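Input/output pair, single chain:
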Amino acid sequence: MTMPTNHNEESKYAASARAFRANVTRDLNNEELRENFRGAMDYLMDKRKGAFSDINELETLRQQCKLIKQRCLLKLPYLLAQLEKNLEANGIKVHWAETTNDANEIIAQLIARKKGKSVVKGKSMVSEETALNDYLEAKNVECLESDMGEYIVQLAKEHPSHIIMPAIHQNKKQVADLFSENIEGFTHTTDVDALIGEGRRVLREKFCHADVGVSGVNFAVAETGTLCLVENEGNGRMCTTVPNLHIAITGIEKVIEFLDDVPPLLSLLTRSATGQIISTYVNMISSPRKEGEKDGPEEVHLVLLDNGRSQAFADEELRQTLQCIRCGACMNHCPVYTRIGGHAYGTVYPGPIGKMVSPHMLGLEATTNLPSASTLCGACGEVCPVKIPIPKLLIRLRAENVKAKGSAPKVMKGEGSGRKKVEASVWKIWSFMHKHPFIYNSSMWFATRFRALLPSKIGVWTSVRSAPKIARNTLHERVKTRKHNKSNYTNQI
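Output:
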């Protein structure tokens, strides 16, 4: 499943997000999927724990990077203008896209101007957000994912189930079966090295003949006009140097102020994501190929996408969502995500971070169930490298979800979509009772005397829990009885 590019697809996508409960039931009953995720998540949690053996260093680094991101977000409009100025001075063209469709149109026009027919893509969740592959294929442009995980997912006609490891939901046997069905001449094997080698063989040929390379961006440095890309496979470097046209796409929140801000962020990103001390490749792109240079693209373009990010930026509390550096640590430690995987969410960004960013991108009416799909255990907030208070933001989104429609101020699209008239009425009655002692005491008296009439089934609550039972007497009555008995006992003595 991919992100929508038109109104009809958006309706289907919204329906999929609303079908969260049905998706959860489906994936909980998939034993192979649960086994795949359990093993992968345990491995990633152990790797991260080993990478941060010094707790004091970790907390110092987290605080430093949190302040870096908050400083950059406070200056976001200024930094975006500075980034554009310096990129243009370096020879990189900058394009602004308010919506996903705007971004796709810009990229399609750039490709058409070069008469491009084939595209190789490095890993980019923002391009997943825009459904770029589907958009280009509709215009008869071949678009091949070059990240191994993304390539596997593309062959399976799925979307990534994790923002760092797209094919983490598949085991080696499933990948071998997929290669057998889609790669001519492949000899079935479950040897991981052989599978990776076969994928690289196919991709290497595509790199050499692609007209266009598309990539994501981890950090865009305003001070120097530099695009920073982090990767492990070398495919990102191939995408950005072999084709004559390189198009990078990223969200507006990825801009940082200084080049000196990059090292601490990189140190946290790689260790939080995969437990590596440093990634295999760190690419710094500041210009197209210059005179006398033997490699690199003739043109470099950057597409900066909004798609709801300015909405989050406008609210001081929700702005913290934009601190995310897309490491995936919150997903790896989430007790909900680790049991159901990414596809159950029905959105491009799953897990705790998806519950925060998807409502801004799609609106709360399309993501009504997501803010509540959390135990609020706090594990996500504890491991977030930039200290985003994820549980607190989810509670805020829950409040916006049940907000009375038309209430001021208007914060986000779809607020109040989860509000139910019956539920709202019940809470009004509850509030009224607790403000008036006589009514409260009277209702408690009736509740204890007629407790046998209470239903044994109370909606979804009793689907996994026993129905609550009211005591025979209220607390006040029991205290009075205790005092009376104590008084009688004293008098007897």
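Residues 31-51 form the longest helix (21 residues). Residues 439-492 form one domain.
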